[in-house]
Amino acid sequence: RQLRLVAWNRRFLELLGFPTELVRVGTPFEALISYNVERGEYGPGDAQSQRQERLKLAGFFQPHRFERTRPDGTVLEICGNPIAEGGFITLYTDITARKQAETELQESRSRLEARVTERTAELKTLNTQLATEVASHKQTAAALRTSENWIRSIADAVPALIAYVDSALCYGFANKKHEDWFGVAPTAMIGKPFQDIMGATLYERLQPQVQAALQGTEGSVEYGDQHSCRPRVGDLFLLHSASQ
Question: Does domain 159-241 have CATH number 3.30.450.20?
């Protein structure tokens, strides 16, 4: 109750750095506080105020727990509990390693959070770019459809057979005039072999020009389907072949 030292162990001296000549049975608590104040254990400030503040708190004999970092970097956890007979017992624990681990963990967490934030920002940027590209592709596709429809309208209005045949001799495009000649809708001709649509007789007649076109030679031929089962007076088949 008089705030005098009653008992301690060797670890108490090691953790707090008290000289053995200071620590005796009956040493006033104030002497220990004064020693700490004089060597700067409590940081900068008025020495008298630091001393009085700690003596006042000790005089309350209330349970307490706090942490204090010594000038050498050691972190102490200090837990005090009053006892029924008067006075109190104080436990000093070196928690330096634990605090360092907590600091390192917090730094790792902060770095991870920063990386997540950075990555999230990158993904948002990529999503924005992707959305812009998708919108651009949609606009381009719409423009191509408009252009294709316009070209098809013109091709369908021309009184001649107009088609695109690839290097494998399969149809990629045909205008409506083909339906009048061959009875096959232009959309149904896409992907069909040129020979299947023309028929053997007409294909044989056109084969020299077709092969020349495949070799890169431009040419044209006119052919009237006079023997068709669907004759059209004045209808002529025109082949304009050109290498692409």
Answer: yes
